[in-house]
Structure formats: C-alpha cells, structure tokens
Amino acid sequence: MLFGPLSRALLPALIALPLSAGAAQPVIEVYKTASCGCCKQWVKHLEENGFAVKAQDVADPGDYRAKFGIAEQYGSCHTGRVQGYALEGHVPASDIKRMLATRPAAAGLAVPGMPMGSPGMEAAHSEPYEVLLVKKDGSATVYKRYR
C-alpha cells in the first residue's frame, strides 16, 4: 500500500504547504539612520503586518531616495524598496500590500515629512496625512488619505 494511515493524514498538509508558504509578504529593504527611533517603529509595523524587513543603517537615506526615483519634496526620514518600488517615509503596510497587488506603473509610495499618527509616529494625537503614488516622471497623485 502506497499510503498508510499516517501519510494519508499528512497528505492534505503537505499539499497545502506550498500554498501557505507563497502567502508570505516580500522582503522590504529599509535604509535608515542608526539613531532614528521612528524608523525602528515603522520597521516593527511592517513586521507586525507580515513583511520580512532587511534594515540597514546608512549615513544618508536621502541618497537611496534619489537612487530609487523619489524627489526630495516627497522626502522623510527613511527609504525602503520592495519588488522594484520605492517606499518613502511612514507608508502604512496596507497601502504597500495594495500597491503590490495592483502593480501600478509608478516609482513607489511616499508619505512626505513625519506626520503624527502615521505608522511609526503614533502619538496621543494624530494629524491628517496623505500617501502619495509617485510616478516615474516625478509627479504624484493621492493614493490614500488618512484623517
């Protein structure tokens, strides 16, 4: 007999294994300064939302922002990269997941500045902010508003 009772019990789990393994989120590379606490909190937010993060302390995250096609006007304190897209600032994990699912023709997402209430910038009060979809030509449109 090819399959005994134990192997028959394990077969559904073995078949499902590749499906569940494929459900993991991609690795996000993060370029930040060593001393920035809110950058560490953003990394924690990403990890709590299923992303694997490879964080690197660098002298100037702005060098990576420019390298990945994000203009200074959209800048923040850290820059990330995932599957060819740039992530500038405190972008919520849900917006990253949405972008990766829809694959827009863009350089990436940005949350300019460091708005209170954005992931990694949690505080007693929050301020409205926008996540921008930065296009490859340097222009941007509002991807999502947070109030």
What is this structure, in a nutshell?
By secondary structure, this protein is an alpha/beta fold.
Tell me the layout of helices and strands.
Blueprint: H1 5-21, E1 27-32, H2 37-48, E2 52-57, H3 61-67, E3 79-82, E4 85-89, H4 93-102, E5 108-111, E6 129-134, E7 140-146
Parallel strand pairs: 1-2, 4-5
Antiparallel strand pairs: 1-3, 3-4, 5-6, 6-7
Notes on the protein architecture:
The chain is α/β, with parallel strands linked by helices and 147 residues long. It contains 4 helices and 7 strands; from the N terminus they run αβαβαββαβββ. The chain has a 7-stranded mixed sheet with strand order 2-1-3-4-5-6-7. Strand 3 (79-82) and strand 4 form a beta hairpin. The chain is globular, with a radius of gyration of 19 Å. Residues 6-22 have low confidence and may be disordered.
